[in-house]
Every structure is written in C-alpha cells, then in structure tokens.
Write a structure and sequence with these properties.
binds 4-hydroxy-3-methoxybenzaldehyde; binds fe (iii) ion; 32 strands; single chain; about 40% strand; four-stranded antiparallel beta sheet; globular; about 500 residues
C-alpha cells in the first residue's frame, strides 16, 4: 500500500508513519511530580520514502524529533517533526529516495555524490542552550528547541574540522564541558577519530585527531574526571567493500577489541591501548569512573556478538536471538600500570539503554537503570526497532556507595505481554534523598498492526509501583533511538 518493503524493518511497530504531529492539552492521568516540568525530546528514524533498493534497515530512516512538554497547567503538548536535513530536502524535491544503502555513499544517485547524506536520527543532544540532532555518520543538525524547526547543519560556528560527530556525547557535570568524538572523521572506512571538547558555552575549544586500531563502529565512549575512554569493538568497515556497493559493517568474531585511554585534557599521543576480548560488541556504556586506587572502571552493556541482525547477516554469523550472551560488564585498567589488557567482570544483567543521573557522569555511580527482558515473561516480546525485539522491563541496580560493587538488581518494573518500553530519560528530584523520575514512551500492541502509545512517569526509586503519571499520545509512534530531558528552567534560560 505504501510502497515500503514488507520486511521487519518496515512493518509492525517499525511501519513508517511519515506524519508530522502537533497535539495540545493532552491529559495527564495520575500525579505529575513537581520536578517534571520541561521537555522530553526523542529521536525517531522514520523513512520519508521507500528505500532505493529492495530492503534497508531502521537506522537509515530520516530523523524525526519529538517534544513532549509538561506544562504548569497540568497538561502536556506533543509535537513531532522531520529534521530537514540536506538529504531530506533533496529527496522531498524529487519525491523519492536518492540515497542508497545504509552508510554507503557509493550506492547513491550520481547527482547526489558528495552530498551530506546523514539523517540526524539518533540522539537529541542539549548543550549550552542548543538542541542538536545527531547521528554518528555526519555532523549534527541544529533544531529549534520550541518549534523543532531545523536550523541547518551544525559545525560549531565553523570551528569543527571533523566531518562526523557521535550521537553519544558526555557532559561533565562540574565543568559543563561537552566531550565528544567523531569516527571516520575524514571519510568512509577511515581509522581517523576526532576527539573534541566544547566549553560550557558551547564553544569548540579542542579538536585532536588520532588513529583507531582499525575502522570500527564506535558508537559510544565515556569520560572520567581525568580520562577519556574510547572502546573499539570489531564491527569493521572496508573501503573496497563499500565501493563494490556492499555493507558498511561486518562483525569479526576473531578480532580483538580495544580500549583507548588518554588524559582527557591531554594530547592524543598519550593514548594507551588496552586489549579486550575477541569478537565482543557493545552499543552503550553506563558510565566510567576512577576507583580509590586510581584505576579506571568502565561499565558497559556488552554482548558476545553485534546485536543487530542485519550486521550478523552481512557477517555470515548465524546466531539465534536466544543464543546471544550479554551482560552489564566492567572493564578495569590502570593507565599508570604495566598490564596492557582489560580486566573483565560481569556486574549485571543482559540488556541495553543504561542510564545514570547526569550529575554522576564520570564519577562513581551508586545506582543506575537499564532496560532488559523480563525473564519470566510469558510470550514473545513486541517486535520492533533495529534489533527486532523491544525491551519489556526496566531495572535499577545498586553498586555500593563508591560504585565499586557488582550491580544488585534492587527494583524492577516488568510490562505485561504486548507492551514494550523505549529508553527512559532521568529527571532529577529536588530532594537529594529521592532518586528522581524516569520518563519513557511505552507501546501497547492491540492488534497485528495496531499500537497505542503512552508517556509514563515512573518513580526512579520505586519502579515496581508502576507509573505515577501517564499521558496517552493519540498518534502512531515509531521506536525511539535515544531521548533527552531539558527542564523548563533550562529552556527558559536559553530563550
Ligand atoms: C545505532 C543507531 C544508529 C546508527 C548506528 O543504536 C548505531 C545504535 C539510529 O542510527 O546509525
Ligand atoms: Fe546509541
């Protein structure tokens, strides 16, 4: 009917919606905590046109950004708009897809050669009063935080040399600096990585380039008070494969992983590379910190193979979803020691979308949340997202006062069959004794191809009690990649 392929990337919860939305005065059921005043932004891939080739994957979808704002009146407004990237505009002009396969510019229409092909679909990043829609294959697009109108590609007022910017920045809670990086920063399949710092006012004050051990999908990184950490897992690119029209990424089970560590204000020449296990993969890190002995501790959602089925298929890896092993995993290294390999311990359950309070970034975190699958659930998870299965449980882990202990699952919220939860954002509570609030979109499958969507506000310290407030959003929503919370005060200060 729509001309989209009838494949998992384009059907069910992943069915393209392609509609901008503006809804005002949505009712909030329950009791909205006083702190939850502000805007919850989400990045959502949603392809405007059917792909140029027979199939594509969720990650290629045009970026859409939504804003759910909670008002003093006790209601909520919801707006959803396309990020009007150069690619979006060029395709809208032609009325069809002109860019080809996922992150392979060699498959684009000839007249699009050299054009900006990013879809800005991964994380809405808020820093220094600006809202940026990011994707790791290109530079960010700036959008207006109130109207969500696209302001154009963002290069830090002409200062940024890197052609790419990660969707996973790390903001130091004390200095307000934004640490970020860009890999393949000078072209496809390049080993060059740009490491950048923007000061608390958003000015790019540092950009240094280094070489990764090989060209890898470097999705996330971390900082501590004194160090920057660059994990490298063996999901790799090859220029000849790209030129032949092939897949950007294959996962290499026999290749080493690496952890690059350097002083965060140091020179890239000070990078030390620590060897990790072969064949492992991770998309998201919970946090990193320095322990009492000065060692560097990195907590990550690690798995024994790349979690994306489309990358497994490209790699000739045949693994059933239930055979994928994963766990929240700690790597410890001593920058000043003699060991040159990571020390690995399992510290939590399998899952992804780890979350900590922003104030704990780079410091020992006493607790954190993550999404996982309810081991007791009867029936299959809701199909959707790039992995093909949505999470249905959020848990809280405690790591001890100094963040040094293995995680204990102390609280959990399991959703019933037919329900799924997207990555929450954290809203701090005014009372330091309270753990704050999680805000997330949940999906409810009501038929073969029918879904209802709700925003849930959950007490971060009492997950099991269920949502304290909910908002029904009367529009079809696609699975989110990442979100960001911006308080009403932050928005007012930026206006
Ligand atoms: C991810 C998401 C992307 C991407 C690469 O979640 C990795 C991981 C939404 O786009 O291009
Ligand atoms: Fe991510």
């Amino acid at each position: 009917m729509s001309g989209f392929p009838q494949t998992p990337h384009f059907t069910g919860l992943n069915q393209p919606v392609g509609r901008e939305v503006e809804l005002h005065g949505l009712a909030v059921q329950g009791t909205l905590p006083a702190e939850v005043r502000g805007s919850f932004y989400r990045a959502v891939p949603d392809p405007h046109y059917p792909p140029k080739f027979a199939d594509d994957n969720v990650l290629s979808g045009d970026g859409m950004v939504s804003r759910l704002s909670f008002n003093d009146a006790g209601t909520a407004d919801f707006i959803l708009r396309y990020v009007e990237t150069a690619r979006f505009k060029a395709e809208a002009e032609a009325g069809r897809a002109r860019f080809g396969r996922y992150r392979n510019a060699f498959t684009d229409d000839a007249d699009m050669a050299g054009g900006d092909r990013t879809v800005a679909n991964t994380t809405p990043v808020w820093h220094a009063g600006k809202l940026l829609m990011t994707k790791e294959d290109g530079r960010a697009y700036r959008v207006d935080p109130l109207s969500l109108e696209t302001k154009g590609s963002y290069d830090f007022d002409g200062a940024l040399k890197s052609g790419t910017m990660t969707a996973h920045v790390r903001i130091d809670p004390v200095s307000g600096e934004m640490f970020f990086f860009g890999y393949e920063c000078d072209g496809l399949a390049s080993t060059k990585v740009a490491f950048c710092i923007a000061d608390r006012n958003g000015k790019l004050v540092r950009e240094q380039w280094f070489d990764a051990p090989y060209c890898a999908m470097m999705h996330d990184f971390t900082i501590t008070e004194n160090y920057a950490l660059f994990p490298v897992y063996p999901t790799t690119a090859d220029l000849d494969r790209l030129k032949a029209g092939g897949d950007h990424w294959i996962h290499e089970m026999e290749r080493d992983s690496w952890l690059g560590v350097m002083p965060r204000y140091g020179d890239v020449a000070e990078m030390r590379w620590f060897k990790g296990p072969k064949g492992v993969s991770c998309y998201h890190m919970m946090n990193a910190h320095e322990d009492a002995a000065g060692r560097i501790v990195l907590d990550q959602c690690l798995s024994n193979v790349n979690a994306f089925p489309f990358i497994q298929a490209a790699s000739g890896i045949n693994i059933a979803p239930w055979d994928i092993q994963g766990a929240l995993t700690r790597w410890t290294v001593d920058y000043n020691g003699t060991a040159d390999a990571v020390e690995e311990t399992v510290i939590g359950p399998p899952g992804d979308f780890p979350l900590i309070p922003a104030a704990q970034q780079g410091r020992p975190n006493e607790f954190g949340w993550m999404l996982t699958m309810d081991p007791q659930m009867k029936g299959p998870p809701v199909a959707g997202g790039p992995v093909g299965a949505m999470f249905n449980m959020v848990v809280r882990l405690e790591f001890g006062a100094d963040g040094s202990q293995p995680g204990q699952v102390v609280d959990a919220l399991a959703l019933p069959p037919g329900w799924s939860i997207n990555e929450p954002v954290h809203v701090p509570a005014a009372d330091p004794g309270q753990l704050g609030w999680l805000v997330a979109i949940v999906d409810h499958q009501t038929g073969d191809n029918a879904f209802d969507h709700f925003a849930w506000v959950i007490d971060g310290g009492a997950l099991g009690a269920g949502p304290v407030a909910t908002v029904a959003i009367p529009a079809r929503l696609r699975p989110q990649v990442h979100g960001w919370w911006v308080s009403a005060e932050q928005l007012a200060a930026a206006a």
